[in-house]
Amino acid sequence: MNDVAQDARRIRIVSRWSLPVVLVVWASGSAGCPASTGVVEPVEPVEPAEPVEPAEPVEPVEPVEPVEPVEPAEPVEPAEPVEEEPGFRGGDDVALLAVLCGAAPVRWERNPRGTTISFRLTFADGSQAAYKPDQTIGHSNWESEVAAYRLSRRLGIHRVPPSCVRRATRDELTGAEGVTPDFRRRLGDSVLFDADGTVVGMAMHWVPDLRGGEEYASDGDWPAWLAQGNRIPPERREDAAALSDMVLLDWLTLNTDRWTGGNVRRAGGTEGPLVFIDNAAGFGAASGEARVWTYFRWAQRFRRATVERLRALDDAALEALLSDVLTVEQLDGLRRRRDRALERIEELARQFGEANVLFFD
Ligand SMILES: Nc1ncnc2c1ncn2[C@@H]1O[C@H](COP(=O)(O)OP(=O)(O)O)[C@@H](O)[C@H]1O
Ligand SMILES: [Mg+2]
Question: Cα(263) to centroid of ligand 2, in Å?
């Protein structure tokens, strides 16, 4: 990312104090919305209120000091039931995000794996996070991790570990366990601290049972599973659907780093779900598109639900979902790639028939 983009991003990126607000607003807004809508529903005209039954007197849980004289309470509408679909690995993303970016870590460690600067955080409840601060290393864009997660969630893919925007202090990073003098120098050279000694970055749910190694490489049998007319071994059908989601997501996010090693993994045992980690190389220069397009073009079969959700992801929805983490140029690129992906899928549907293209349930 060039300096201008960095600056634009840093100006736009929230100050440390607005972070909890961002998290709460996002978690209760875009993250909490049913991912299938993608479009803001016009507000229903408010019905004249039904006469309200007098509320049961509520027992105060603890005696509360009245701060100001309390206005007589308005009758409270019952909360809308939140239509929340299962998130990453069928779990509750909103709960994970609340810890990831709302709780204070009890431990900071350097993550010695990978090629970029990253850390591992541990929280009081025992859960952990990968942490990547804003850094000069071109293929480590923390905002790309967050954008890939939010997009995957909105598309119903649920295979990118939840992540959110989190600030760190210089002391947290330099004082982390495992930081050697050499690594401390590297932090000084490469981490983009702000003048106040903090740095923006992202915290990602640490998958506790991530299997080592790599499940699929850029060669192998799987591209053939995504081509028309080919047989998919029944025990690989779920992987095939996941991989079609992945090449679509990588195209949308312009992820040029999917196949450099260890980024397509399985969680749990040998039959556990595929998960896509290290989405940090996305949203870079448009010159990377040719390569990512090649992988995307392998796919002639998609998950129907993913494509339907992508169709619903209009410009306003994308803006609402990602404008706090992506620059205007990055968002423009994403819109363009969404359009190209949908055109390509339409073209395939004309050629092979929609049922053969929206092949995976
Ligand atoms: N969310 C995660 N859950 C579990 N392990 C992770 C997670 N993210 C990263 N790791 C571990 O850290 C390594 C490096 O992380 P990665 O995101 O690939 O960074 P890099 O960009 O430096 O390659 C991974 O190969 C994996 O072993
Ligand atoms: Mg990696």
Answer: 6
96 lines ligand 1 (CB under 6 A): no
Q: How far is 360 from 241, CA to CA, in rounded Å? A: 6
pLDDT tens digits along 180-228? 999 999 999 999 999 999 999 999 999 999 999 889 999 899 999 999 9
C-alpha 311/C-alpha 290 separation (Å) is: 23
User: DSSP letters of 46-88?
Assistant: PPPPPPPPPPPPPPPSS----SSPPPPPPPPPPPPPP-----G
Q: Please tell me the pTM assigned to this model.
A: 0.80
Average pLDDT over residues 60-83: 49
Rounded CA separation 155/300 (Å): 18
Every domain of the chain and the residues it spans: 14-33+90-205, 222-357
Kindly give the distance from the C-alpha atom of residue 290 to the centroid of ligand 2, in angstroms, as a whole number. 21
Ligand number nearest to the C-alpha of 141: 1
Q: Is the CB of 127 under 6 A from ligand 1?
A: no
Q: Cα(262) to centroid of ligand 2, in Å?
A: 6
